[in-house]
Amino acid sequence: MNSNTQRLYVIDALRGFAIVAIMLLHNLEHFDFYFLPPHLPEWMVKLDKGVWDTLFFLFASKSYSIFAMLFGLTFFIQTNNQALKGKDFRGRFAWRLLLLFGFGMLNSLFFQGDILTIYAAIGFLLIPIAKLSNKALLAIAIFMLLQPLEWYGLFKAIQSPNMEIANPVSWTYFGIMQEYIPNGSMIDTMIGNITNGKKAVLLWNWENGRFFIIFAMFIFGLMAGRKQLFLASETTNKFWKKVLILSALAFAICYPIRLALPIWIESAAIERSATTLFNPWSDIALMLVWVSGITLLFQKASFNKVLQFFVPLGKMSLSNYVMQSIIGSSLYYGYGLALYQYTGATYSFIIAIVMTIATAAFCHWWAKKYKHGPLESIWHKLTWIHNK
Question: In 3D, which of 18, 384, 325 has the Cα closest to residue 194?
């Protein structure tokens, strides 16, 4: 994969698929403001629960993992392209991460659940390991997936299984949202999001092991780039078929255990650490089913036409991610239309479908006129500022 290689549209399709999945979930969550409208008829409550459970089963914790893996892949592609020109990309990558952090802070004004700032911060860890061997990278990734700090929590819980456990610290900050999102002005909401909201989200990601998982996914993406796994060939096809089969089997084993853990484990302290450790494994297994399945289907002419729908969305994923936050907060928050009061999962899902279609139409139109999306263009130009 070098500067002369045809763009790998399957990567754009995967990224576009992830951005659509994120859009669906964010709408169901009212963009991080959970609220169940009162006085809904019983049939609507049941329908809402079905929609919620289905979409979260399919996409929750899988979409951000796809993004993280592709983040590491992009790091490899850019680093490799510059290496072929005799240049070291790592310094400019650090600058690129600072720019991404800035985009993330902009996004955080509208949506406290922003992931860009977290990706930018963790992305710096790729710089010192960029030239390690694949064996070393694999060892680091597996170590991250094991979430070493959570094992300490599990050990403490086993020593004192009857100890009382407090609510996660992040819940306190999420509770404070009630003070500004339902009734606050746009300025009040932005200030709340960028202060209280950032604390809530950073703590939640820490409490749920996301920082370790994200770094592991970065590394797997870097390794996938080295192995050229997204270049279609007989060898890579065999690889993705094996991944599809093994990940499907892993999910079939892990998911029932995930459901059973709260039943098997009586101690609340042990159960919390055990589920934090175990749940990501079933999520990653299903994520790999999505990635391998889409990668293989993209080569089939009949499915390729369908998956091409996601390509422009993926090429403009940064713009789409920020744009959905601006639109979504305006729809659901108190300073906008305050639809959180009226929309359960079903209505929010319908809104998400409309947003997806409108976003796709915009992206397809934009892609015919411009090489990069609006924010992608700014990011690209600033990345290569003063380039000689």
Answer: 325
Find tokens 């108190």 and name the residue: 334
Q: Say if residue 7's pLDDT is above 70.
A: no
- The whole-angstrom separation of Cα 64 and Cα 214 is 8
Mean pLDDT, residues 46-52: 97
CA–CA gap between residue 41 and residue 212 (Å, rounded): 42
- The first and second tokens of residue 349, run together, are 């899902």
Q: Please, is 2 exposed, middle or buried when counting C-beta atoms within 10 Å of its C-beta (0-12, 13-18, 19+)?
A: exposed
Exposure string of 309-324, with b = 16+ CB inside 10 Å and e = fewer, is bbbbbbbbbbbbbbbb
Closest C-alpha to 279, from 22, 51, 55, 56: 56
The 8-class DSSP code of residue 388 comes to -
Backbone angle region of 56, left / alpha / beta, with phi > 0 → left and psi within -120 to 50 → alpha: alpha
Averaged pLDDT for residues 79-102: 94
Rg for the chain, CA atoms, rounded: 21
Say whether pLDDT at 203 is over 80. yes
Structural domain spans, the chain: 9-383
Please say if the pLDDT value at position 24 is more than 80.
Answer: yes
Which residue shows structure tokens 């694999």? 138
- Give yes or no for residue 273 having a pLDDT over 70: yes
CA dist., res. 155 & res. 187, Å (int): 45
Residue showing tokens 């055990």: 274
Over the stretch 132-175, which tens digit does the pLDDT of each residue have? 999 999 999 999 999 998 999 899 999 988 888 888 999 999 99
Whether the pTM exceeds 0.70: the reply is yes
